[in-house]
Amino acid sequence: MIVNTGDGKGKSTAAFGTALRAVARGWKVCVIQFVKSERWKVGEREVAIRLGVEWWTLGDGFTWDSPNMERTEAVACEAWRVGREKIESGDYGLVVLDEVTHPMTWDWIPTDQVVSAIRSRPPSVNVIATGRDAPTELIELADTVTEMRNHKHAFDQGVRAIRGIDF
User: Among 49, 25, 52, 30, which residue's Cα sits nearest to residue 121?
Assistant: First the structure.
């Protein structure tokens, strides 16, 4: 189990790179996005789907900007239901829970449920969890934890995200 966390960029991108590596090795891969919505049209999604990755964009956008937090919480809970189902099925060599830490930190998805599902997963299922502020329990469970640090970010200098570079 891998956790990519921290305040720097690249957590999801690193996970998607690993997903592509798994596909190249013949693994069945599933990605569940907890934050980004369909309107983002993430570039990695387009490529991954062409390569046979099952990709679920179940987020509601940047949840901290949501005009309807109850709906956003329900969307996150549905994303976790799908994620848990995929992990427990044993059908995948890799399941990526992209930005799952946000709904965990906000207590929308109980951390103990996520940890329990990952701990009891079939041995053939690998999991990558991404997002800022990964809970201690998730970090302790992981085999590998990478913390991305923000040294400098274009957004802080007024540079907007660029399609093809940032998403």
Answer: 30
